[in-house]
UniProtKB/TrEMBL annotation:
Gene3D superfamilies: Rhodanese-like domain (3.40.250.10). It holds the Pfam family Rhodanese. The keyword Signal applies. The keyword Metal-binding does not apply. This is PQQ-dependent catabolism-associated CXXCW motif protein. Residues 99-182 form the Rhodanese domain. Keywords: Signal.
Length: 194
C-alpha cells in the first residue's frame, strides 16, 4: 500500500511545485514589463509597466486627493461595439460609465492617429487645459489598458508636465465611488467618425 501512496503523492507534489514556479514566473514577468521608448503598438489589453516616464503614476488615494485640484480626467476607454449577433429588431443603446467630470475620448489611447485625430486630440487638450501644459491631466481606462498608458505618453512627448496615469482605471474607482454615464467628447468624436 505504501508503494501506491508514494506513487500517487509524487505526481501531486510535482504538480504543486510546477504550479508554484509557473505562478512565480507569471508574477515576475508582469512586474517587469518594460516601458517602450515610444507608443505601445501591441495589443491594447495586457500587462502594462508600473511606470510612465515623465508622468506620475497614481493609485486611488492619490487620485482622490488630486480631484481637489480639478484635473482634466481623460478617459480613453473604447466604446462598446455592437455584437454581430445582436437582434436587428432591437435598439442598441450602449452606455459608458466614468469618473464624474471625465472627458471621454473613445479610442484616444491608440498608438497611431491619422492627422485629423492627432490635431483634434491636442487641440481639445489645449482647450481643456486653457493652454497650461502644467495643469494636471489624469489618463485612465480599465486595468491592464495600454490605451491610457499611450495617452499619457503622447502628452508627455508633446511637453505636458502635469500628466498623471491611473492604471487601475474605472474599475478601481467604482470599488469606492459612483461612476456616471458620459458621452464621447464632441470635438474628439467628430475627428474619429470621418
Amino acid at each position: 500500500m505504501s508503494g501506491l501512496i508514494g506513487y500517487l503523492v509524487k505526481p501531486a507534489a510535482s504538480l504543486a511545485i510546477a504550479l508554484f514556479f509557473a505562478a512565480t514566473v507569471i508574477h515576475a514577468s508582469s512586474a517587469e514589463v518594460k516601458e517602450p521608448d515610444g507608443m505601445w503598438t501591441g495589443p491594447m489589453r495586457g500587462e502594462t509597466p508600473a511606470t510612465l516616464k515623465g508622468a506620475v503614476v497614481v493609485g486611488l488615494p492619490a487620485l482622490e486627493a488630486l480631484i481637489a485640484e480639478k484635473p482634466i480626467l481623460l478617459d480613453v476607454g473604447p466604446a462598446d461595439k455592437k455584437p454581430e449577433d445582436f437582434p436587428q429588431d432591437r435598439l442598441w443603446l450602449p452606455t459608458h460609465r466614468s469618473i464624474p467630470g471625465a472627458v471621454w475620448f473613445p479610442g484616444g489611447g491608440a498608438a497611431a492617429f491619422d492627422a485629423a485625430q492627432e490635431e483634434a486630440f491636442f487641440r481639445r487638450l489645449e482647450e481643456l487645459t486653457q493652454g497650461d501644459r502644467s495643469k494636471p491631466v489624469v489618463t485612465f481606462c480599465r486595468p491592464q489598458c495600454w490605451g491610457s498608458w499611450n495617452a499619457g505618453k503622447r502628452l508627455v512627448m508633446k511637453g505636458y508636465t502635469g500628466v498623471h496615469w491611473f492604471p487601475d482605471g474605472i474599475d478601481r474607482w467604482q470599488e469606492a465611488h459612483e461612476a456616471v454615464e458620459v458621452e464621447p467628447d464632441k470635438v474628439w468624436n467628430s475627428a474619429t467618425m470621418k
